[in-house]
Amino acid sequence: MQEDFHYYATYCAAYIAGYSHEESLDICYSAQLVDLCSRTYLKRIKAPLSAATTQLQLELADASKDKLGLQDITRIWASFHFLPYDLNAKKKGCSKKYLNKYRLMCNVNGPLVRDTVLLAKTLSLQSIGIAMHVLADTWAHRYFAGTPSLVINNTNYYFYELLQDGKKETEKQIKFRHSTSAPDDLENSIYTNSLYQMSENSIMNLGHGRAGHLPDYSFIRYKYLPAWGDYDVIVKDNPTDYYYAFCQMVYAMQYLRGDYPDFETERYAWDSVSEWESKIKSILSKRQTDSCNDWRAFAQKLSGHKIEKFNLDKYNEEYIKAAPDKKNDTFIGKFVIGAMAQKSMVTNKIFKSGSKMAGYSVDYNKRGFKGIRDFISLIERKGADK
After folding, report:
1. How many domains does the chain have?
2. What pLDDT is stored for residue 180 in this prediction?
């Protein structure tokens, strides 16, 4: 997903869920920040590098491709963008190495979605924003994995866009190219994707790079033949999936506000959203690569407030100027704590499943602190909350 959904649509979901205008802005800002909080950014504001929630293309290009480097990549992308669905999945006739990657495949309504939402309830509005980003991405990024894998993430020539002309559906074969400077050509179904690399662990095979930006476009419907699915046809209906994502976010945030005693997967705020269903679906199905203007207009009509455009540097000065013992109380400080908590939780779940794809993890409460020193602040904050 992109800024249109993570920022503006998330604002709308938060407001419908009952949060105030100011609270909704904090939540949607944090949701969008997940896509921009790289080590390069954290280094610039002198924040803990372990709070990185994404990697820039240049960072990925320079990243080590040894075991430790791949574990670092997986920790980031599996924790925030491709949340694993079933860490105990079974698949016949495959090696343990491949099975570990298969188990990292993203899908909706898995146990880690619930864990992510429950974790956010114990922290801050910033953590709610992080959780909404993670939850929403499970709908857009389903069937891809947050670790480099040719077997899981590759696409081939059998990739068709499904176009609706009245009641008639037609198929148009998608043409992929590798020119990052050329915009996607919607009229001719020509899209940019990552360059094919035979190496299983190439960063070109990370996430949905081989499918380009298609998973991030709300309007598109397409089908393809993934190797992991024994070459059976997979159909992705993004307008439907994105509407499910929106309604699940509203329900999740209603729970986080205290409207429900527990969070359940496969539950959606259909009734709460029904008043705006037609408008939301019209935005989601509109054939365009960027829906920011439409979502922003809807958000402003919904709340009656002006929605400022996302500004990455909005909270930098507050964080930079804060005293060392006060940094965790700033906007960025709370985001950092939330990001490290989410990364720690997912990494621990992967490790406890018997996989070291995301590296080692320890139970701090039982074994004390062992690991990257940045996480000491997370442990201290948990202690203070108790």
Report:
1. 2
2. 76
